[in-house]
Write a structure and sequence with these properties.
Length: 203
C-alpha cells in the first residue's frame, strides 16, 4: 500500500500540489475546498460578476495599503511588508517554455489529423471534444471549474487508497474497449480509403 501511495504522489509531481491533492496538508486542502466553494457560490449562485469582484478586491487592497503607508509615516510605524513586486525573467521564460510545449503538442495533433490522415487520432479528438461540448451544455464555465476542483480533491486520494481494485476494474474495461474497437476497425475503419503518402505528394 505504501508503494501505491508513492506512485500516485510522484505521478502528481511529488511536490506541494501533490500534497494538497492527496490531503497530506490538511489545512491547505480544506482551505482550497472552502475557497473554491465560496467562489463558486459567489459567482454562480449569488450572480456576482467576476470583473466587478476582482476590481472591488483590488480597490479595497489599494485603499488599505495606501492608508497604512500614510499612517505609518505619520506615526513612525513600519511600512506594509510587501515583497518585491516584479516578475523575474526566469519565471517568464519558464512559463513561456511550458506554454510552448503544450502549443507544439496541440499543433502536432492537428498536423497528424489534417496532413497525416490519422483516423484513430481524429476519432479520439472528436469524441473528447463532443463529450466536452455535451457536458458543457449542462453547466456553465464557473460550475465546470468548480466540479474540476472537487474531482481533483477527491479522485487522486480515492485512487491512492483503492488503487489495486480500481486498476483491476480499469484493466477489464480497457480489454473490453479494445475488443470492441478491434471489431469496429475490422468492419468499418479499414474499409475507409485513405490516401497514401505517394498519392499525397503527387497531388
Amino acid at each position: 500500500m505504501g508503494e501505491s501511495r508513492l506512485s500516485v504522489h510522484l505521478a502528481l509531481g511529488g511536490g506541494a500540489v501533490a500534497d494538497v491533492l492527496l490531503w497530506k496538508k490538511l489545512s491547505v486542502s480544506v482551505a482550497f475546498l472552502v475557497g473554491s466553494t465560496a467562489l463558486w457560490f459567489l459567482f454562480d449562485m449569488a450572480g456576482y460578476n467576476l470583473i466587478s469582484f476582482i476590481s472591488n478586491v483590488l480597490l479595497l487592497l489599494i485603499v488599505i495599503l495606501f492608508f497604512w503607508a500614510k499612517s505609518a509615516s505619520l506615526l513612525n510605524r513600519p511600512l506594509p511588508p510587501l515583497p518585491n513586486l516584479e516578475v523575474s525573467e526566469e519565471t517568464v521564460l519558464k512559463a513561456a517554455d511550458e506554454i510552448r510545449v503544450w502549443v507544439n503538442h496541440a499543433l502536432s495533433i492537428a498536423h497528424d489529423i489534417a496532413i497525416g490522415g490519422n483516423l484513430l487520432l481524429f476519432l479520439k479528438v472528436s469524441i473528447v471534444l463532443w463529450v466536452i461540448s455535451y457536458i458543457g451544455g449542462f453547466f456553465n464555465f464557473i460550475t465546470l471549474v468548480y466540479i474540476g476542483a472537487l474531482l481533483s480533491l477527491s479522485l487522486p486520494v480515492l485512487y491512492d487508497k483503492f488503487q489495486n481494485p480500481i486498476d483491476d476494474k480499469l484493466s477489464i474495461a480497457y480489454n473490453i474497449a479494445r475488443v470492441q474497437y478491434q471489431k469496429v476497425d475490422n468492419m468499418i475503419l479499414q474499409k475507409i480509403p485513405l490516401l497514401s503518402n505517394k498519392e499525397k505528394k503527387t497531388q
